[in-house]
Structures are given as C-alpha cells and as structure tokens.
Amino acid sequence: MFPDRWFGATGRKVPAIALVGTIDLEGALVLDSVDDLAALGAAHDSGQPIVVRATTVDQVTAALARPEVACTLVPSEDLLDLDLRKLTYG
After folding, report:
1. Strand 17-19, strand 29-31: pairing
2. What's the CA gap between 90 and 79, in Å, rounded?
3. 50 Cβ partners below 8 Å, 6+ apart?
4. What pLDDT digit, counting tens, does each position of 58-86 carry?
5. What's the pLDDT score for residue 22?
6. Model-level pTM?
7. How far is CA 77 from the centre of its chain?
8. Closest by CA position to 54, among listed 38, 37, 31
9. DSSP 25-84
C-alpha cells in the first residue's frame, strides 16, 4: 500500500495507484509513460497534477518512482496492491 500523494497544487490528495475511471482527473496532465521529462518538469513546475497510465508492473514502478507523478492509473485490480519496496529492493 502506498500513501496518498498530492494532486499537484490543487490541495487535494489522491491514491498513488488507482483504477482507471475512479478519480477525477480534471486539470491533470495524463501521460502514457514517464519518458517525456520535459512535460513532467513543466507540469510539475506549474503545479499541474501529473497522472500516468500503466498496464504492467514495470510501468507502475517507473511511474511511482517519480515524485512528480501524483497518481498511476491501472486497468485492473491486480496492479493495485504491488509492493514497491519488494519489487525495488528484493
């Protein structure tokens, strides 16, 4: 389980991992990966929430490793209960 994260500068917190369609994404930059560092930096600097879609364990862990990412959206409940510490450190 992950602690909630700040949703940009909105003053609200959201789950670190959420099912697609379960949270309000209004005003967020929604990306398919964390590879676009320029977009991540610009959005973060302006206080815009950043949300990343992920369909694999590797994509989820890559998104959660970025402190700029407010939430990682996953398509199935199987990806909700990942143990990031175990996946990262063994």
Report:
1. unpaired
2. 18
3. 8, 28, 29, 31, 40, 43, 44, 68, 69, 70
4. 999 899 889 999 999 999 998 887 777 77
5. 96
6. 0.89
7. 15
8. 31
9. -TT-EEES-S--HHHHHHHHHHT--EEEE--SHHHHHHHHT-TT--EEEESSGGGTT--H
